[in-house]
Amino acid sequence: MNKIKALFHKNKKIDTEQKIETITSNVPDTRIVEPEIVPLQISAELETQDIPPTSENIMIPSQSDLKQPIQNSPTSLHSSMDNDDDDSNLSLLSSDFASEYSYGLSQDESEINNLSEDNLFSEQLELSDYKLIEKIGEGAFSKVYRGKPLENSIVAQNYKNVAIKIIKKDILTLEDNELVEINGEKHKSSNRTSTREQVLKEVALHKQVSPGCKNIVQFIDFKESSSYYYIIQELLNGGEIFNEIVKLTYLSEDLTRHIGKQLGHAIKHLHSMGVVHRDIKPENLLFNPIDFIPSPQRKFRKSDDPNTKMDEGVFRPGIGGGRIGTVKLADFGLSKQIFQTNTKTPCGTVGYTASEVVKDEKYSMKVDMWGIGCVIYTMLCGFPPFYDDKINILTEKISRGEYTFLQPWWDEISDGAKNCVSKLLEVDPLKRYDIDEFLNDPWLTTYDCVPSNKDKDTSSSSKKRKTKQHRRRVLFNQFMDNDVLYSPAAVAMRDAFDISNAVARIEEEKMLTPVYGLSSLAEDETASFDEEQIKEEKRQQDRQQELENKMFHLKLDSSTIVKRRKQKLNSIP
Ligand SMILES: Nc1ncnc2c1ncn2[C@@H]1O[C@H](COP(=O)(O)OP(=O)(O)OP(=O)(O)O)[C@@H](O)[C@H]1O
Q: Which residues make up the binding site for ATP (predicted)?
């Protein structure tokens, strides 16, 4: 049994607990942060947007405002309102109906009015325009709630339900080594430069890229109170693609294409605006659920265990498969703007020649293509392309692009899929697919299944709908297998993605460093060889140190996540 494969599959007996234990500590996550847009620019950017003229829609406060926090007076920033039903052609469930299955709660409007004192979350006290209904997710420094805009509000005209990401301010403004409680655990803080600037940068970028792409989770509103930031977004009822991979073990080529294409459209939109996402992973892909249609005849791969492999169901081109309909990219916390769309000038840089700028932009964007490659590889076989339980070896493998199409799991996967993956996981960024090449890849643009009339949406018939409802209930229960979602294998897969993305970002920075990177053309050519050698040795040492620091933090993050997930699992009745 191959060790790597074993690590990522459930029901295979291996000691993954021990592997996870090697990366334990009690220091919280430190994101790799590059605040590129200063608060003033953010404010200017946000100010130009269509903000409904209400008394509450005031500008994000300046740094000086921050020193005198506003008590219970959230600032607000609405996005242009997009229609909630933009993917009605894909989703066979109404969003309310889907929510019922995803979160098991009634969507009755009375939900808001009936909330007793017990239902009140502490974050609610400083939020007046939205009602927090239930917690649906958790990030390293945030909680995400399903919420409802207050009746008669402008947002309520477009959205019945929203997702509200809440970041507690004191978590982001700590001195080094100060103790802080994050989601119930005490942690020693590390040196976080990401404070309000980071949050505002995320908000500004998210707001900027939201319009015009249905494969990006829509930004709706931003509020800031004395203790919290509230980022209000479109609610995606299905949850993370990550969970679907873990539950189904791997996805069919058609379903992988379906997700890959939508991810590709999101990235094309971002890149056309000069924005690089830099954190593409299955956890950041959310989806709206569709009807599950069981396969009339199950097909298994040689490597499947027919007793445990869950049915992915029938795939319908243009609609989806499994429960997965529309897929949207989320989490702009690590995104970076390379150039502004109107000017095409790079952000924060001057003095580059045009060709270098173009090369640098292209290079920077290639980091997302690498991310797409990792996601597609993982969806096709169920484990990530790069893995090793020793972080230094893992980093080496990623930097060198050392991955294989492991037997027997890749035996039945088409050559077209392998070709597409290898074009994305190409070490040389200049040879790596760009987004247009990816979207035109021959494998991506064909389907194995042929659409037939009977596969088209017939769910308008209420009789059929009722029988489907029952089936969905049964299936939904199966999908809620938390043991699988929080298993060591699933945690290891999350970690592998985090590390892979961090290494890719570091490689990107390295490439853009003068002398070694693409910007070398701009470097002073008169510098002597000796000076360059000394400089390079220093750079190498710095990079090594930086990588070690980042890897160290990633190790710590993992333990935080492991503990938090265990805690979450225990709290599930
Ligand atoms: N719009 C949304 N609709 C539905 N669920 C969401 C939405 N946004 C976030 N979530 C859920 O909340 C989780 C955490 O959100 P998010 O990734 O934005 O937080 P984060 O603090 O950036 O996380 P991290 O930094 O750990 O990656 C997501 O993985 C997802 O399960």
A: 169
Name the amino acid, one letter, at 515.
V
Q: What is the ipTM of this complex?
A: 0.96
Distance CA 205, CA 295 (A): 41
Among 91, 84, 87, residue whose Cα is nearest residue 323: 91
**Structure-block tokens of residue 31:** 């994101």
Encoding tokens for residue 385? 């392309």
Report the percent of the chain where pLDDT is more than 70.
Answer: 53
Sign of CA dihedral 525, 527, 529, 531: negative
Matching residue, tokens 């098991």: 104
Of the residues 221, 279, 291, 368, only one is catalytic, namely 279
User: Are 376 and 384 contacting, i.e. CB atoms less than 8 angstroms apart?
Assistant: no
Give the whole-angstrom CA distance, residue 8 versus residue 387.
10
Q: What's the Cα-to-Cα distance from 18 to each of 22, 484, 503, rounded to whole Å?
A: 7, 17, 24
Structure tokens at 230: 């509230």
Measured by CA distance, the residue closest to atom 12 of ligand 1 is: 137
Structure tokens, 151: 């009746």
Q: Closest residue (by CA) to atom 30 of ligand 1?
A: 137
Q: Give the Cα separation of 60 and 43 in Å (integer).
A: 7
pTM of the entire predicted model: 0.68
Q: State whether residue 23 is helix, strand or coil.
A: coil
368 included as an active-site residue = no
Distance 145 CA to ligand 1 centre (A): 10
Distances (CA, A) of 468 to 92, 94, 165, 278, 474: 11, 14, 33, 39, 10
Ligand 1 centre to CA of 134 (Å) is 14
Fill in the DSSP letter of residue 144: E
Q: Long-range contacts: 120-126, Cβ < 8 Å, 24+? A: 121/145, 123/166, 123/228, 123/230, 125/72, 126/72, 126/74, 126/225, 126/226, 126/227, 126/228
Please give the helix or strand (H or E) that residue 99 lies within, else none.
Answer: helix 95-103
Task: Quote the Cα angle for 186-192-194, to 5°.
Answer: 120
DSSP string of 477-510, one letter each residue: HHHT-HHHHTSHHHHHHHHHHHHHHHHHHHHHHH
C-alpha torsion 177→181→186→191, nearest 10: -20
- Give me the pLDDT at residue 536, please: 63
Q: Give yes or no for residue 165 CB within 6 A of ligand 1.
A: yes
Which residue in the block uniquely carries the two structure tokens 């707001």?
207
pLDDT at position 74 = 38
In this structure, what token pair is assigned to residue 505? Answer: 């970002």
Residues 172-198: tens digit of each pLDDT: 654 445 554 544 555 444 444 457 888
Question: Per-residue DSSP letters for 292-322?
Answer: ----SS----TT--TTTPPP----BTTTBBT
- Per-residue tokens: 34: 């590059």
On whether the CB atoms of residues 399 and 20 are closer than 8 A, the answer is no
Greater model confidence, 278 or 417: 417
